[in-house]
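Q: Hi! First time doing this. I have a protein sequence and I read that you can turn it into a structure. Is that right? Here it is:
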Amino acid sequence: MEITADAIRELVDRRPDGAPVTSVYLNTDGALYPRATDYEARLDGLLRDVQRAGDARGPAAARSVADDVAAISRWVRHEFDRTHTRGLALFASGGEIFESAEVALQVRNIARVGDAPYVVPLEALLGRVHHIGLVVAERDRARILRYRLGQLREYTAVEAEVHGQHAQGGWAQARYRRNIEREVLHHLKDVAEELLQVHTEREPLEALILAGPTAEVSEFRKLLHPYLEQIVQGTARSLPVDAPIDSLIEACQEVEQELVSARRRRLLERLAAAQGQAGKAARGLRHVVEAINAQRVETLFVVEGAGEPGWRAATGALALREADARSFGEPVERVDDLVDACIEGAVRTGAAIELFRDDARLDGHPVAALLRF
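A: Yes, that's right. Below is the predicted 3D structure, encoded as structure tokens:
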């Protein structure tokens, strides 16, 4: 499964067949868990938790979750290859794993049993996802790489026949020097065209990092398509074309964090500006639930770990109190976590989700929202 907004929406919209859904997120980072038995021990603890949750749902659910537990344990131990994976998400129901995601980023060890897949950690990852291009350009060589979800992949490498200096030292006559300049320019144009193909033929780039010698990078930037020029991040990085992969990933991670921080700052400024304007923002669980029911949420802000039980009416409307749910239509059912239900509702309507570690930036509220219309 590729982690995109559409993929998460499809996961949430998966039609239940009556059996509960077991969702497991497992951190498999080799830096924390050098041996497979290290993260397998964490997995066993998570699976014991979900089995207890299944037992609480009755005999039929307990048997179904037991089958999920066996399937997940078997898959992780015998089919999983963590070579390029630091985080794993598995979703099972009726004893079968129906979806999985492997990412090069850490995830928190979490397991849930519910009527639908638990997607909050996926939304947390999605909030960090940016498609970043990295170009390291030198006078006769260049590399174009793409970064997403912790993985840096090389799109292409470009090499050119560019003449150098005479053996005697010094540049040749003016004509010879101009020929060299034209060769370098032609090479940089080829790199710019390749980069434009990355943007137009694949997922569009959201940010672009340039690296290499100052003179070459300055000339290369002049050749970029206007859109690509607009998304260049900062000044050129002093990295050689054969720089180690860790240095390149570090540059991408720095830019990605800057993008996340800038986006959150803009959204929180909008939320603050909407203070006291009920038509533009909602604060607190009751008001956010009303906005979710009306499908008006544009961006949902959630404190990780926040939760409160509630109710769902036959129409799908959510409510804090049973009597309020009945007013929307009977029969009603208990909802274990109303915050999770709000997240699912937001995902289904295409709203963005922003997760925070504490409620300080939400004025003490567990949830808030910017509204549409």
